[in-house]
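Lab notes, practical 5.
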Amino acid sequence: MVIPSLLGQPTERNEKQHNIFAYVSVEDTRETTNPRKKKQPKPKPKPLHGRICKCNLTESRLAGGVTLAEMKVPQVITISPSGKYFGIRKHHKLLIWKVPDVESERMVMRKITMHHTKKMTVLAFHPTQRIVAAGDVTGRILIWRRFGDKTFAISDGLVDGNLMSSEEERPGVRDNDDADSCTTWHWHPSQVNVLNFSSDGAYLYSGGQEGVLVVWQLDTGKKKFLPRIGSPLLYFTYSPDPSLSSMSCADNQIHLLKMPSMEILKSISGIKLPCSVPEGYEALCRGIAFDQSAGLVALHTGNYCIQFYSLLDDRGISEVQVCERNHQPGDDVTVVVTLVALSQDGSMMSTAELKIAEEGIGGLVCLKFWASGSQNKEFSLSTVIYEPHRDAGISTVAFHPTRRLAVSSSYGGDFKVWICHDEFQQKDPMLQNSGWSCHAVGSYKKKAMTAAAFSADGSVLAVAAETLITLWDPDENVLVAVIGETLTPIMSLSFVGKSEYLVATSRGSKPQLSVWSMSKLSASWSYMLQIEAVATAVDASSFAVLALLPESPKCKELNGTVFQGRDGVILLFNATDPVPVASWSVRKAKGGFLAFLQVNPSSIQEYISDGKPPQTLLAYLNADHEYVLFDPYGEETHELSVIHREDLLASEESGQYGYASIYGELPEFQLKKNQATWTPSAPSEKPWETIFNGSSHNLPPLTKLCSAFLESLLEKRTAVVSD
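Output from the prediction step:
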């Protein structure tokens, strides 16, 4: 919407006040019916149309019967700084109207059309002269000078012989366009997104997908550049102070520029949008990590960067360039940052990269360790390790809670413990190398290692071997125990604070959330839920999970009544109790994340609900990088909880708990009095190698097992009967 009278000359006090008119770009979605047909089954919606309508703001109504233009979709209206002209883009054309000096409701407005061979993307008016510029999808910029010499000048009664020039005197003007000349400039390799004149009209600013701001001198066509902005430009504007201007980029940043040197004085960074991932690699990417003590999130963004963003202060802190790549629009993604991990104190970071193979050649996995030496999270590269697990992908990277030690697990069937040389420097000051090296390698029956986690004190390393959980001594690299067996491969492991409990999640056809006791080496309780994220409190024995609602018909019915269209639920548990402490329904849960943040009570006054400042906040970040912070233990939060225990039970597809949720229902035996005795049959091909393999609950009774085993060791002979 544009209001020309607001940009024009102010009226005198004694002058009669006229009605104020606005020109609005709207979308017409009215349904149409055919009056000739008696039976009309259902009115079909009219295809969406954009319209430019005139609105009387003084009387709060549309000007009756005034439609300036129609198009397939609504277009943005651009108005000149003087308020005398406004225009829109319509495919390969520019439509420009002149605003009359005194507006009335049914006054006919004069319009001109400027033609081009390509689709227009943006337009801009000169602040003082009749000059209009437009950019197209190919990166060209067209500048029409003295547009409307015939049409608009006739309406003003300013026609003279000089205005009616011949075709030969109008260079670059197509067809019968009403302009004195048309100049074409071409530098941008892709479509132009930004076009704006300077306040004095001497320069033209342009920018596009390539992330470069270009300043054109209008009279000579000479240009200057501000390169390597790193993201496509969206908007550019100048201030009343000619020495300042600003631009907005697609990565949610605003840059303040000092003119005319185009030096970036300050950048205001919001949380960046998620980056695009090639098809087939979505499941490998876990590009988010949290620094719980500082209230920061490290997330993978476009242009191969890791952004550190303060969730408490709602501002960007720093960025780390993981791969040295310049922003180029339209380039295929060749490298994917699959993992980001932070140490508990936030001083160390690890990233995993995957170079996509081209036609099966050139694939490469890379593991990097970073070190931070300041509070502003300015990380520097410490160590680069190529192919840490041969050609297998990395599933998880986890840091030791107190030492400079980390573990990486791989889908290739092994995990490696990495140690920083700073650990050795404390014992031997002569060592100067501060890089990382492999300390130990472990595996279990060549199974894929899908997840890993350290306990709170770092004395136990839990590594998921597909459906099993293996417990290791990280110092001696000794297997301590093997527990459990889930129905599908485990995707994540998390120790619950300083308690004895371990949380495991698995996905697939039979998803599962299970809690395991380290003292009993057995499962405590479980749910069959599709878990998207897990967050554990540092000091408490509570944890939260983000669960996706099942897509069963019963749950879809609940979705419209109980969950109100939301697709996920946050459940807060105490590790010792399967009954949720609290629950909240959320939207956009697919691809979301959770984290407990330790906060300073003096800096979070807005989160205090019952007079007591919270010690911990729970952060929910969805797939679109929209987030919310709340106190999960506050009284007001519990009152807002909209999901009850009964609703949670009804939303589960199977309704199984405990033993049945992990191993399935036990078979039903029907005992008969005259039951025949069991006759063992000897298995074939070395049964002693596999007969004792498997979980204890799946093995037959010992009496049956021993007879079969002993019989398999005996050599069978054929009896010979002599006559």
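Observations recorded by the TA: Confidence is low (pLDDT under 50) at residues 157-161, 638-659, 668-684. The chain has seven helices and 49 strands.
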